[in-house]
Design a protein that fits this description.
With about 60 residues, the chain is mainly α. It has one domain (about 5-60). About 45% of the residues lie in helices and about 10% in strands. The chain is built from 2 helices and 2 strands, in the order βαβα. A two-stranded parallel ribbon has the order 1-2. β1, α1 (about 20-35) and β2 form a beta-alpha-beta unit. It is elongated, with a radius of gyration of 15 Å.
Length: about 60
């Protein structure tokens, strides 16, 4: 029976820094692979970044 090794990644993202966030994700993939992970999960909106206070300000604008 094959075991599936799953890794959960937590990275610090910057809102709007697509290139920097993507670089951090790619680095995490390389590290996860070297540690034997078969599957990695990332936070939602990891590429574009997420900030809680932006959603609240968006509601006020509407």
């Amino acid at each position: 029976m094959h075991r599936l090794r799953i890794g959960m990644v937590q990275i610090n993202t910057t809102v709007g820094d697509f290139r920097g966030n993507t670089q951090r994700i790619l680095q995490a993939i390389v590290e996860g692979k070297s540690l034997g992970a078969d599957l990695l999960t990332f936070p939602e909106l990891a590429i574009c970044g997420y900030a809680q206070w932006y959603s609240a300000s968006g509601v006020e604008v509407l």
